[in-house]
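The instructor's notes for this session suggest beginning with a concrete chain rather than abstract definitions. Hand out the sequence below and ask the class to guess, before any prediction is shown, which regions might be ordered.
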Amino acid sequence: MIAATQLRSGMAILHEGNLCRVLSVHHITPGNWRGMVQTKLRNLKTGNSFEYRFRSEDRVEKADLEEHEMDFLYAAGDDYHFMNTTTYEQVAITRDDLGDAVHYLVPNTKVMVEFYEHRPVGVELPVTVDLRVVETAPGMKGATASNSGKPAMLETGLQVTVPQFIDVGELVRVDTAEGKYLERAK
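After discussion, reveal the predicted structure:
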C-alpha cells in the first residue's frame, strides 16, 4: 500500500478490485481544505478511462506486476509484438494497452514488459530513445545560437520541438517521460 500522494503516471494499481493504469495525476491543495489527488485511471480489463479523486491520506494498493525484458519486434495493425530475450517467447500487446508508449517504439528497442496474472498489460520504456526526424521545416540562417525551436515529426509519429539546426534524416534523443528533445544522437 502506498499513499495517494505517491501516485505517478504509468503506475498500475488495484482500484475497487480492478487493475488500473494511472494516466495522469494532479495534486490539488485548495486553500484551507484538505489536499486531494485527482487522477485519471484506465481499467485494463475493460479499457474504460475514468477520473477518481483520492484524499491525500488515502492508501492505494499498488499492483504486483511481473516484469520481463523484451525486444520490440514489429507492429501489425493495432498489435505490437515483443519477444522475450531469454525464452524467445513472443507476445502481442494492443495499442490501447500501450497508450503513449507507441510513440517511442522502434524495432529492436529493449523494454520491460509488465505482466499481471500472466497477461501482458504494458511496458516500461527506457529513459531515452533515439528517433529519426522524417519531417521538419528548413532551419533559419544564423539561428544556430538562438533558443528558438521548430516542430519536427519523428519516425514513430511523435511530434517534438527541435532546435533550428536539426534537419530531416538526423537522429535525435528524446526523453520518454516528457516527450521532449534532449540532444542530437550520435
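Then share the key points. The chain has a mean pLDDT of 87. The domain at 2-62 is CATH 2.30.30.30 (SH3 type barrels.).
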